[in-house]
Specification:
By secondary structure, the protein is mainly α. Helices cover about 85% and strands about 0% of the residues.
């Protein structure tokens, strides 16, 4: 923009100075030097029109650049907000990750504790089985002996006469004794009769 203003001042104030070298204090771009050389053959009206066209082009370019700057600023603001959101989300995720790691560490410790208890239980059961197995066999053997003894006892009890049979046996024995006494009496009577008849054994 400064180069355009410098060119306009040079064209309006010093038309003959366009062909001279640029002064050290006012640098002129090489692209404008060609336009300044062409402007020698132009009338002042053409020069003013050309300058107005250049000014309008520069203004349009400046407006376009301003719109681009506004768009880039808006995009930058959006990216900054997104970055802030990402930083906040990252902090949240890091916090959740820390809690998850703590929970995982606690679960790992609990798992190790349970594993230790399980191994101790297995050792205790293994040692107990060494005593329980013989005791179990001994108990089964004792139960078998008791069942066999109970069977033998039941057979003996079955063979022993009951109280009714004992009374029956006593009655039969008394009857047999009565019969024996009757037979003895009958024999004595027969002996007496034979002795009276003179028959002696």
């Amino acid at each position: 923009m400064r180069a355009i203003v410098a060119t306009v001042v040079s064209l309006l104030l010093a038309p003959g100075a366009l062909a001279e070298e640029a002064r050290p204090g006012i640098p002129i771009p090489p692209s404008l030097r060609g336009q300044m050389a062409v402007s020698k053959s132009m009338t002042p009206v053409q020069k003013i029109a050309s300058l107005e066209e250049m000014l309008n082009q520069e203004t349009d370019r400046r407006v376009a650049l301003d719109s681009k700057v506004a768009a880039l600023t808006s995009e930058n603001d959006r990216l900054t907000a997104a970055h802030v959101g990402l930083v906040r989300d990252k902090a949240t995720v890091d916090s959740e990750l820390g809690r998850t790691r703590d929970s995982l560490a606690r679960v790992q410790r609990d798992l190790e504790s349970v594993r230790g208890e399980y191994m101790r239980t297995i050792k205790i059961v293994s040692l107990a089985l060494a005593f329980i197995a013989p005791l179990t066999l001994l108990v089964f053997a004792l139960l078998g002996w008791l069942l066999l003894s109970a069977r033998k006892l039941a057979l003996r009890v079955h063979d022993v006469p009951t109280l009714a049979k004992i009374h029956e046996y006593d009655a039969n024995l008394a009857h047999l004794r009565d019969q024996l006494n009757a037979e003895k009496n009958h024999t004595e009577v027969l002996r007496e009769r034979l002795s009276k008849l003179g028959i002696v054994d």
